[in-house]
Specification:
- This protein is of the alpha/beta class.
- The chain has one domain: 3-Layer(aba) Sandwich (Rossmann fold), CATH 3.40.50.
- The strands form 2 sheets. A 7-stranded mixed beta sheet has the order 5-6-4-3-7-8-9, with helices on both faces.
- The radius of gyration is 15 Å and the shape is globular.
- The two termini are about 20 Å apart.
């Protein structure tokens, strides 16, 4: 199955000049979504994660079914102000601005093998911020995986952690 046929591109969102790769059409197609999770399981399983760190918000959609397949836990990496209790925060640059992500202080235990999950790798800022939070918890980040990599932005080489993607786009 060609999963790219189920990815919709929306020009000038969230601001002019940005071409948004939308997975809404992918998750809305049961066979394509099932295939996506099966293929993501194959990508991530060699890392033998104890926990998946799901990035707010589309990363939640990917990590939840994936953690069931991998028999591991899931923790949330959320935008600022969304998690109760004590949190650790990290600010970073986006393709179109800045943002801050947080995890609960006790979400990841020292030594837990962690894989970061999101829907898309663009500039790498979000994944790098998540990795910083996880490593600050004393857990190794053994990899990161996304459905989509925007390879033309060159972020994979700058991450400093192993990275895999199901789909790669070489141009906008």
């Amino acid at each position: 199955m060609n999963l790219k046929q189920h990815i919709r591109q929306i020009p000038d969102f969230p601001k002019p000049g940005i071409n948004f790769f939308d997975i809404s059409t992918l998750i809305g197609h049961p066979e394509a979504w099932r295939t996506t999770i099966e293929r993501m399981t194959e990508l991530v399983s060699p890392w033998k994660p104890d926990v998946l760190a799901a990035v707010d918000a589309r990363g939640f959609l990917v990590a939840a079914p994936l953690s069931i397949q991998l028999n591991c836990g899931t923790v949330m990496v959320r935008k600022s102000g969304k998690l109760p209790g004590k949190v650790r925060a990290h600010s970073y640059g986006l393709e179109y601005g800045t943002d801050t992500v947080e995890i609960q202080e006790d979400a990841i235990k020292p030594g837990q093998r962690t894989v970061i999950i999101d829907d898309l790798l663009a500039t790498g800022g979000t994944l790098k911020a998540a990795a910083s939070l996880i490593e600050g918890s004393g857990a190794p980040v053994v990899g990161a995986a996304c459905i989509i990599e925007l390879a033309f932005l060159g972020a994979k080489e700058k991450l400093g952690i192993p990275f895999k993607a199901l789909l790669s786009y070489d141009s906008e």
